[in-house]
Amino acid sequence: MTSLTTGLILLRGGRVYTPAAPDATAMVVRGDTVEWVGTDSAAQVAYGDAADQVIDLDGALVTPAFVDAHVHLTSTGLALSGLDLAGCRSLAEALDRLARHAREHPGEVICGQGWDETDWPEGRPPTRAEIDAAAGDALVYLSRVDVHSAVVSSALLAAAPGIQQADGYTEDGWLRREAHHIARRVARDAITPGQRRVLQRAALRRAAELGIGALHECGGPEISGEDDFTDLLRLAGEEPGPEVYGLWGELGA
Prior knowledge:
CATH architecture of the largest domain: Roll
Strand order of the largest sheet: 8-9-10-11-12
Keywords: Hydrolase
Organism: Carbonactinospora thermoautotrophica
Domain Amidohydrolase: 53-239
Pfam family, one: Amidohydro_3
Helix content: 25-40%
Number of domains: 3
Protein name: Amidohydrolase
Shape: elongated
Radius of gyration: 23 Å
CATH topology of the largest domain: Diaminopimelate Epimerase, Chain A, domain 1
Strand content: 25-35%
Order of helices and strands: EEEEHEEEHEHEHEEHEHHEHE
Number of helices: 8
């Protein structure tokens, strides 16, 4: 991770959470280091004339950055910027969103997420035929809210030789277990390196906005692939943003 700040910054007028100084209302940051915490009056005496920037917190709470111990950042980027099916109140609404997304992104792989048929009046997810009707010949991968199954298009199945023999395959396109892993891998591999970087940056930017300073990327051959994993760690090391720690999980031979 590269430095996010330069110079000396004084934050004052807030509530700074630290057991070392329970009454702290001010904090001084130099580069990537919290240099000092204390009261506003003490901060003014010690740093008031030296600060390159003064930020008035207006009573805001300042805490240490959070740590997210289990993330898949490319998938998170897809959830932030891809086809969002969370909140769809019916199968018909989900298909409408899919059709609109396909029209707006011709020629691209469509990765959607978040559908949940539990409370839909139809009581079921979209079939492969319905997905094809909505998205044409696009590669379509739509993961359920639990991300452990997905529905897909005929074009995606055609790009996955042998998937029909995999455990969890169904003709209607709702895939589970090994068939789901294969379909996810096909969809993932259709994303270009440039698109992947855009998705990863979006996820890292959102983490920073939420006050997350460190993330544990949980990668593996069935989740993200080695290129995705290594490219993410390289990106996080070269650009400002949260620290990313890579955890790779794979069964041994």
